Amino acid sequence: MKTISFSYKGLIVPVFTPINNNESRSLNLSIVPDYARYLKSKKINGILVNGSTGEGTSLTVEERKSITEAWASTVKETSQHLMVQVGGAPLKDVEQLATHAENIGADSILCLPELYFKPTTVCELTEYLRLVGESAPKTPLFYYDFPKASNVNVDMGQLLKSASGKIPTFAGIKTDLERAVHAKQVNDNYNLFLAGDMMMLSGCAVGMESYIMTTLNFLQEPALELIEFGKGNVDLTSARKSQEYINKVINEITRYGSWVSTMKIAMSITTDLFMGPPRAPLKLLSQESIEAMNKGLTNLGIETNKTALLKML
């Protein structure tokens, strides 16, 4: 069975979904071109739309299509790799989103498992992904392995074995370091994207080359240095300092609430791009928390954007 090739390696940023701070919490698509150009200027060449950071599972199918179309149009100018997360919805909607992603020119597709009638075996998950893959037969497909959130916990090495020869578009997985190392030992023929911003140094040390990390939205230089460490161009002492700095920033941000709610605020107060509030059931942080985060990030040497801060208060 002929399979589709996939060659992208390096960093992919899971972008936030910009939302207007109005009663309906509508999408702010007008900001996408500036967002893409900003990331490109920071040497980030891969984009993931509608992931966890992008609140994809909190958006309607039409909203997911709209934000994907906005990015697809923009990356034609910026020449960034476009990955679209299509899962976290009824299977028919997932198939529709996969077809849409292919039709608008996405470079790859990422897919969560079925989140209610969950697959409990490798065979069940393989069959689910086969159906999704058939809906986008020309686009590389990745499985989004996130058992802490999805409660779908199957062996990733066995999934790679099972998918081989059954899903022509299957290209690999996004997962954490431990599960990636195991999968690589079982089958080294697929692409592995690591999640977990605080473990990038460890990933580089064991030869991992590709990462999907939220902090790439506003903290790029330490990650770029860690990529160079993985290539042998940066010494271990410098790489440790970069990882320690990323971890300090994450700890300062997330002390005020959940991952997406706090990271979205951090993006807004450290750049000229106002991401707006999160979509319910997530809540906008309190004025006190935003001000405290602003002070904490300033103390870590990060320049903050007072205009964006005032917009949120």
What does this structure look like?
This protein has 313 residues and is an alpha/beta fold. Helix content is 46%, strand content 11%. The protein is built from 13 helices and eight strands. It has an eight-stranded parallel beta barrel, surrounded by six helices. Strand 6, helix 7 (177-186) and strand 7 form a beta-alpha-beta unit. Helix 3 (91-103) crosses helix 4 (122-134), helix 4 packs across helix 6 and helix 6 (156-163) crosses helix 7. The longest helix is centred in the last third of the chain and has 19 residues, at 236-254. The model has no long low-confidence stretch (mean pLDDT 95).
Question: What's the structural blueprint in terms of helices and strands?
Answer:
Layout: E1 11-14, H1 32-41, E2 46-49, H2 61-78, E3 81-85, H3 91-103, E4 108-111, H4 122-134, E5 141-144, H5 147-150, H6 156-163, E6 170-175, H7 177-186, E7 191-194, H8 200-205, E8 210-212, H9 221-230, H10 236-254, H11 259-270, H12 287-299, H13 306-312
Parallel strand pairs: 1-2, 1-8, 2-3, 3-4, 4-5, 5-6, 6-7, 7-8
Helix pairs in contact: 1-2, 2-3, 3-4, 4-6, 6-7, 9-10
Short description:
The protein has 313 residues and is α/β, with parallel strands linked by helices.
Shape summary: globular
Category by helix and strand content: alpha/beta
Largest sheet: 8 strands, parallel, barrel
- Biggest sheet, strands in spatial order? 1-2-3-4-5-6-7-8
Number of beta strands:
8
Q: Span from first to last CA?
A: 57 Å
Task: Tell me the fraction of residues in β-strands, as a range.
Answer: 5-15%
Report mean pLDDT, rounded to a whole number.
95
Low-pLDDT stretches are: none
Q: Nearest-angstrom radius of gyration?
A: 19 Å
Total helices: the number is 13
Helix amount = 40-55%
Order of helices and strands: EHEHEHEHEHHEHEHEHHHHH
